[in-house]
Amino acid sequence: xxEGKSTTAAxxxxxxxxxxxxxxxxxxxxFLTYLRELQHWNRTISLTSITDxxxxxxxxxxxxxxxxxxxxPRPGLPLLDVGTGAGFPGLPLKLWxxxxxxxxxxxxxxxxxxxxxxxxxxGLGDVRCLITRVETLAQDEAMRERYAVIVSRGxxxxxxxxxxxxxxxxxxGRLILAKGPTALAExxxxxxxxxAHGGVLMDLMPVSGESSTVRTMVIIVKPxxxxxxxxxx
Length: 233
What we know:
Blueprint: H1 3-18, H2 25-41, H3 53-65, E1 78-82, H4 90-96, E2 101-105, H5 109-122, E3 127-130, H6 134-137, E4 147-153, H7 158-168, E5 169-179, H8 183-188, H9 191-196, E6 200-207, E7 215-221
Parallel strand pairs: 1-2, 1-4, 2-3, 4-5
Antiparallel strand pairs: 5-7, 6-7
Helix pairs in contact: 1-3, 2-5, 3-4
């Protein structure tokens, strides 16, 4: 192994361990492969503006795993990642919890080619890359209320696709969004959308981590008619 690769491998383990997530050998190999494939493909396809080793590890890999603070994985749990881009947060969540069944929504054909290549290289099963928009996906009757968890990292204006996401969310499911410091103000403007589609804001969870940007996990639930929800605020 070259010195550069050795240094990157050590850094990967160091940063994951510092975050309380030490890597076993299979996960270490998969995340290292992910990092290298991302950097290689990013030379010809615009996948991310963050390209240095530490940035990818901290902001993309560990930042994606921060979503685990907001839901409990279980075998076969169906998870949808909206606007996944280069696979965040869906693929790191899948690597950490292989028992998840993950669908990635990405409208870019070129990014989808990368994602499918990456899933083959990583040997991942129960992962689909859907080349579409979430609004289109929600029009398919067979997909309605399919997902127990829907995740997204700050994709576009929430008002545009929140109704579709709630249509795809199971009763009792969770929609988890990583947003910036204006998360509460943005969600408050969506009270009409939430009410119309059965969503309830359950929590705003500040997330501390390696990212220099203040982030808040917005957790929206879709309770059944008899379920009591302790609303945020």
